[in-house]
Amino acid sequence: MNVGGKPRRTIWVEPDGAVGIIDQTKLPHDLVTRRLATWEDAAGAIATMQVRGAPLIGVAAAYGLALAMRAEASDANLARARAGLAATRPTAVNLQWALQEMASALETFAPADRARAAFERAGELAEADVETCRRIGEHGVALIEAAARKKRGPVNVLTHCNAGWLATVDWGTALAPIFLAHRQGLDLHVWVDETRPRSQGLLTAWELAQEGVPHTLVVDNAGGHLMQHGQVDLCLVGTDRTTRRGDVCNKIGTYLKALAAHDNQVPFYAAVPASSIDWALEDGVRDIPIEQRDAREVLEVAGRGRDGALASVRVAGEGTRAANWAFDVTPARLVTGLVTERGVCEASAAGLHRLFPER
Ligand code: MRU
Q1: Same domain for 221 and 259?
Q2: I need a labelling partner for 150 at 20 to 30 A (CA). Which of 71, 92, 324, 341 fits?
């Protein structure tokens, strides 16, 4: 998508073979790029959320394995790097999926050919992610068009966290239909949840501004009020892991939005690439591992100070304890539908089976 009118991606291979990323911890204030030269660099970038968002975490891990193979293409190093990358973040299933895709591809190559094969496969996963998101966009636009037919004025879409192009290689998942609808001239407006504590909503607002999509940033607790007052026509969110019966795990607070949407008869959709579906799990509330992050993310807020420098300030009193669950699970019964690269389906085992009969 566009930054300053020029198309950009979140991850790329530099001419000298290092992997380039946008450091998302500096956005929306500064656009800073970084070079990853080792698999440890890639693991660090994922763990510290310089790269984030389920699909991008997967692709970054794939490039991490490629960097490991360039350093030393032995079975032992493959296993070491795979374990190190897998341990960075527990919830987004795309991470395990991408590492498995890479390992399966590399098994068939002798060590001498592994580095080349690994960069090739990681590149394919990146390109496939772009295509997947583009298709999610095409299928999701129909939902916005349907909402537009029912009313006068802009379609109001509420989104939580950042499921835009920054969370993928390009396009995004939940934001792809929004970008596409806007480019097609549909009248729409996006309510952007701030998404404390990491404030990924600020990334969403930045992306929407770059594309010229009308939007308003709201505090996380505003959604219920907006829905009660007819200000939301559609909720559209991403996912880090969706179970085979359609339970949707996404950024903490998503479940509360789904409850409010249900109470106010607002359609609630999740954009779900197949790489985010965990076919081995049924009950998301019981079985999806929920990441718990450093309490400091809750106790402190980061931003640009009056002196222009990026800084963190403590908002909680000294001695206050905090807990920091990063995700929650919205049961399938609260989800109107899943927007996948193969079309829109009911959030149920039957719905997913219809689109993915091979699974
Ligand atoms: O902790 P994050 O920022 O990696 O969490 C991101 C989300 O929860 C997104 O909604 C999800 O990964 C889908 S991204 C297309």
Answers
A1: yes
A2: 341
